[in-house]
Amino acid sequence: MHDCPNWFRNGLNQRFNELCYTVEQQDRFIPLKEKESVLFKNLKSQLNKLDYETFTEWELAYHDQNSLEKEWIYSKGVKDGIRLMYYLNSCKE
User: Fold this and answer.
1) Is the Cβ–Cβ distance between 33 and 88 less than 8 Å?
2) Residue 78, CA distances (Å) to 3, 14, 55, 61, 64 in order
3) Which among 2, 10, 11, 63 counts the fewest CB atoms within 10 Å?
4) What is the pTM of this model?
5) Looking at the 3D structure of the chain, how many domains does it have?
């Protein structure tokens, strides 16, 4: 995304964040999120201090990587959509 203006990049990031928030609020995901939360609390309570610190460091790295991957996929999808719109608009009716 080096060739696009900052306002466009910011708009994409905002839309991505809005979609992430929206998906977190959907009822069909609530039972899975609750189950994950309980399991996660149990896991953390059973770790000693060193294991907990290592796990927390891994968790942060994992979430950073996951966020970057989602952002990359999203930006590729938007670029594909723009190319498709350009192609469709250039076709003769």
Assistant:
1) no
2) 14, 13, 34, 26, 21
3) 2
4) 0.52
5) 1
How many residues are there in the chain? 93
Any domain includes 24: no
C-beta of residue 52 within 8 angstroms of C-beta of residue 60:
no
Segment 2-30 shows an average pLDDT of 80
pLDDT in tens, 23-37: 888 899 889 989 999
Question: Rounded CA gap, 77 and 26, in Å?
Answer: 22
Cα separation, 33 vs 83, whole angstroms: 36
Report the C-alpha gap between 4 and 82 in whole angstroms.
12
- Which structural domain range is residue 84 located in? 31-93
Residues 6+ apart with CB under 8 A from 13: 71
